[in-house]
Every structure is written in structure tokens, then in C-alpha cells.
Amino acid sequence: MNTKIRIETRSQMERVVKQMKKAAKAVEKSEWRRKHWRLNVDVPGTVEMQENPKTADPLTITTRNISEEGLGFWSDQPIPKGCKILATIETDQGTVEVRGSITHCTGIIGRFMVGVLFDLIEGT
Question: How do residues 91-101 score in pLDDT, each as one tens digit?
Fold first, then answer.
């Protein structure tokens, strides 16, 4: 699919995640420590550093999960906590682009498990 979806608001992200849940026929489950339910997805994507994008090539990633507020993914390279990024992931709805900040980056056997909190504004 060639549709490009740039996400800037919370309501836009909510709609995309709901569509992804429906397409995956996922069943919601409650996680006591999480504000939002996460959809486990394994899709390709890229991450571009926003602080100095001209000095770094986009990183190829594989997503772990997505929610209305954030994204988890695997990376071959570490990304500093607090770093501003542009994540691009491929979904059944199209290519989704969303800005965020790295919340954690944990090394696990040659790869890095990375968490992102989306930088979204209120609105429709």
C-alpha cells in the first residue's frame, strides 16, 4: 500500500491503532501497569534521529508493539534516552510516520529493545 499517513494528534493515532487491532483481529487485555493496551506487531520500519538528521542515516527497525501513546521496537544500534525521532512503520493502512522521544534502550543479546513515547498534540 502506498498511502502515507503522518500522525500529529492523539485522535489520529487512536484511529490508526484501532484499525490495526481490527485488521489483526486482536483481543484487548488489561495490563495493570499500562495506561493503554498494546498491540503486538512485527512489522518493518525506520527511525530517523531528529536532533541532527544530516549526520545519521535512518536505522532499520522491527516493531515489537504499538499503542495509542507509544511504540516498542528492536534496533541493531543503541539510541540515547531522550533522543527525538521520526518513526516510519509499514501497516495494512499504509506507511505511518510519527514523531516521538526515546524512553528507554536496553541491550539484549546483540540487539536493543527500544521504547518510544509519541510526541502528539491534542486535537482531531
Answer: 887 898 999 99
Note whether 75 and 47 are within 8 A (CB).
yes
Is the separation of the CB atoms in 13 and 5 below 8 Å? no
Parent domain of 90? 4-25+36-118
pLDDT in tens, 9-31: 878 878 877 777 777 665 555 55
Residue 18: which CATH number? 2.40.10.220
Task: Give burial (CB, 10 Å; 0-12/13-18/19+) of 32.
Answer: exposed
Backbone angles phi, psi at 93, to 5 degrees: -85, -15
pTM above 0.70, yes or no: yes
